[in-house]
Structures
1.
Amino acid sequence: MTVRKRKDTGKWVSDFYYNGERIVRTLKFARTKKEAEQAEAVIMNQVFQQAYGFEAKPDVLFENFVIETFLPFSEANKRSFRGDVSVCRALVKAFKNKTLRQITSPLIETFKQELLAKPIVFENKKKKTRIERRRTLTTVNYHVRILSKIFSMAVDAEIIESNPCRRVRMFKLNNQRTRVLSDEEERVLLAALNDNTLVREIVILALHTGLRRGEIFNLTWNDVDFVRRIILVQQSKSGKKRVVAMNSTVSELLKNVVRRGDLVFPSPRTGGRLDNIKRSFSTAVREAKINNLRFHDLRHTSATRMADAGADAFTIMRILGHSDIRMTSRYTHATDSAIRRAVENLDKKVFGNELVTNPMGDDLENR
């Protein structure tokens, strides 16, 4: 590579010879030597193609490719389309007026770091309040994954040669929550929901089936079979259908739910699919004085209770709808009661055919 940095302007310049002809280009968007070298490689490739009569592939503005290619694909194929739209707004803003080839790995790394550092501002005009919250590592990684998908589609369309996101590392996450609702916490939570029948029923169903929030919101009466006592989950996170058995609590609960249409839990306001119950759930958690509890922890609690009752990991895997047993392992960590039983087994020693319990620490060998 033959890039250099001009002393007068501070701009990087590509300066090389091809077939005796000197070619000089100012690299306006290059910030570092590595970016300059990557840009020069593109220029050299274009010169080579022109010299041999190849038609250079046209570069495309990033925002145009997102609007014309990626978002239509997302709308047609992804359930997360709304989320993708929100992410793409941030991506288009960050890479405004840049072409796909001008967006390099170092630029993406800079974007990733700035996205994490810059807080999101929430303003309440009525209360005249302003709240700033930082994005989580999971959210930033999601932005990078969407960006990588955009570039992969550009590679498939033969607009660019490689995906620059391949050299950008995701943030390492430590999101294996182990929050389990205790029996007492469950009691006070349900008591706090006495005046909100809808959310109370949803919470009970989540605790006794391990269903995700979205799976509960999508549940229709056609999916509930009271004769065989099963629930058919039509729309799961993995896209696969699965069957979840109903215990007596769930069966009685659903039999007493007032039917207001095809959906088991329709929105009281619109009659259509529920969008969210976060505010009602958070209010009940706060009134019950329960710390650090999210709705998804109900699924975690359900799986943990099944494991503690003796269910094996593969059975729980089928109930939860996981495609990888390693995911299920997160929900089958050792609970207090399981740990207690395991430790208490250390008190037991077998001598011949006689089982001797040694709770007091006596010398068994002298008996």
2.
Amino acid sequence: MSLAAVSPEGADVRLEALRRVQIDPRWATPWAEKPLPTPALLAGLLPGGGLVPGSVYSLTGGGWLLLSLFAEPSRAGLWCAAVGVPELGAEAAAQSGVNLERLALVPDPGGRWFSATAALAEVMALVAVRPASRVADADAARLAAKLRDSKTVLLTIGPWPRAEATLSVTAPRWSGLGEGHGYLRTREVLVTVTSKRTPLPRRVRMELP
């Protein structure tokens, strides 16, 4: 397996690498208008039945949730990228079922996080970003137009203007320990989805690696 990484140089992202991503057809994989492959338990909670191309979703409180959302699209052959999430490592991604051959990481984009996100959104099916600063409404609107054109899904770690839905993770439960011995095997969490389309939050418990 290989992992595509775009490394920072000082505070700058190597924009040449991002441009290479944009022009290299091997990075671009066509995908349909229907929602991206999404874990079944979450698909039933999300408006539209899954991650709808061209939409923005906000995530709070769970790196494992992000990896779970990367897993099925990457295994289906779609490219995923994460910007400004340095704690997201290859080992954790692989354990969550992510196809590392379809994952690109920009761990530390510095002040260029928005440019890096916009560039990757032109060629990736799914892009996640942790904003290093507040995004202006005008910038969010321009990026939203780009996402609609490219049919890319954007996952933001933290709030984002006019997100389609917000997914939050709470109430973790661990399993595997016996009477003071044993190994932690799985973690179960409560995922809550709120959206502008549904008046009441929707919740489901999910088992994560």
3.
Amino acid sequence: MQSYSIVLLDIDGTLIDDERKISTNTKCLLERLEKQGIPVILCSERYPDGVEFFVHQANLYSPIVCYSGNLILDSNRSILQDYGIKTSDAISFKKYANKYFPKVVVSTYLYNVWLVDDADHPVIHMEANMIQCVPLCAPIENALRNSDHVHSLSCIGSPQEISALQKSASPLFEDIQFLHSGPTSLEVLKKGISKKTAAEYLQKHYNIPRERIVACGDQMVDLEMLEYAGFGIAMGNAPEQVKNAADCVTASNKEEGVYIALRRLRFKPPLVPVSAI
């Protein structure tokens, strides 16, 4: 029977339930795995402090993957990998979206900074409550004057507007990719960087074959990671395309799907200990 050496977990819609909590059973299982030397690595679209919030909740200490693979931090939170969209491209995309899709709310992320146009917008208030981040209201051109890249742009709107924006913008911005993190959310990221490339990076650091990676997710942004892992687990609340790409489908995030899937697997620590990365 195959054993696994690292666990890659999406957060929203996967690790946490709809009240943004991790179940007691899941916490105990993840903590036990790390005590056995199995790195449990949270891989999210969230910014670093937003990931860290759930690291503390689950009592983990492994590296973290932020912005869907564009920023990877080690267990001491030093930078291992840092990619992003060129600042000029980010500014151009935002101007395009604001002009042609004014109902879509576009904001920008760089490390732990969240830039918005209107901090009082209802969508921003809702997002701030969900991700536990305080937005900075500032013109993107001024705020990014001394930065050569941003990690992510987030677009929130109706499913129809989000799909139309993706279809319209994709051929115009060749160095940018668009990934759905939900029916009303579109992540704008550097092309070629993803949770899959993060998995590849971590695989090399832990010196293990990909067959010993287990990954769990629920959205299109997780799909490539699930396909790359030795054992890809789709949540019961995932869309059909994600389920079809996975090796198995577990229960939903409301029903302790992560706990149910992982408790049945065998694990063996990687050659490189958690403390070494």
